[in-house]
């Protein structure tokens, strides 16, 4: 892995795990010193992250961590409703028994994490949630759909979703997951699509309420 790829991967991971707060300025000079490289790979990495929407170019050398506003959130959720709903429909038709079993296992793991509430349980919930939704695309069997879906699932506010949920929100989300998995197990694509739409619309409404409360 060359210097540009190393820096890009490291900064991208930080952005996707909320290492930086929205609006944080990332300076080329500081990053070059931290990663012990010249500014050239830093600029190349920043350019790629800007093209992905994770960073915004600043007035001076460097970039700003892109803030997520209500409008951004709604757009991402609407796209997810369309793509994940379609993927869930295909998943109900084409997923292997092993893939469906893994979805059911994820449901069990997340439910147990919610009960136990061990240290870092929210991180475990977020990881499980991302894998569960990724399974729609895996089971659908469409490489193009999987690629499009992966980008939407890597949006920072999607990854950090469970950090703003209260206990009732989490319980509802887990019930939705179970019903989606059941619909897919039964091969009922329309039921699966409908539940995905219900699930993501509920999540979008939670983000809207939290944003309104902060304002």
From TrEMBL:
Highest taxon, organism lineage: Bacteria
InterPro entries xref list: GntR_C (IPR011711), TF_FadR/GntR_C (IPR008920), Tscrpt_reg_HTH_GntR (IPR000524), WH-like_DNA-bd_sf (IPR036388), WH_DNA-bd_sf (IPR036390)
Domain HTH gntR-type: residue ranges: 1-68
Gene Ontology MF, one: DNA binding
Coiled coil start-end: none
Keyword set, alphabetical order: DNA-binding, Transcription, Transcription regulation
Name under which the protein is recorded: HTH gntR-type domain-containing protein
Species the sequence originates in: Pacificitalea manganoxidans
Lineage: Bacteria, Pseudomonadati, Pseudomonadota, Alphaproteobacteria, Rhodobacterales
């Amino acid at each position: 892995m060359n210097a540009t790829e190393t820096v890009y991967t490291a900064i991208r991971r930080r952005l996707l795990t909320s290492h930086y707060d929205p609006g944080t300025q990332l300076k080329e000079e500081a990053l070059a010193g931290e990663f012990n490289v010249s500014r050239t790979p830093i600029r190349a990495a920043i350019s790629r992250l800007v093209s992905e929407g994770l960073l915004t170019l600043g007035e001076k050398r460097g970039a700003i961590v892109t803030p997520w506003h209500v409008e951004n959130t709604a757009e991402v959720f609407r796209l997810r409703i369309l793509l994940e709903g379609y993927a869930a429909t295909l998943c109900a038709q084409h997923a292997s028994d092993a893939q469906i079993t893994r979805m059911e296992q994820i449901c069990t793991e997340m439910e147990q994490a919610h009960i136990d509430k061990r240290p870092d349980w929210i991180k475990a919930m977020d990881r499980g949630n991302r894998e569960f939704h990724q399974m729609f695309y895996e089971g659908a069997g469409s490489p193009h759909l999987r690629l499009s879906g992966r980008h939407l699932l890597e949006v920072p506010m999607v990854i950090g979703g469970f950090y703003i949920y209260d206990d009732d929100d989490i319980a509802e989300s887990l019930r939705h997951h179970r019903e989606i998995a059941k619909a897919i197990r039964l091969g009922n694509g329309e039921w699966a699509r409908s539940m995905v739409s219900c699930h993501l619309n509920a999540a979008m409404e939670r983000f809207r309420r939290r944003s309104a409360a902060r304002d």
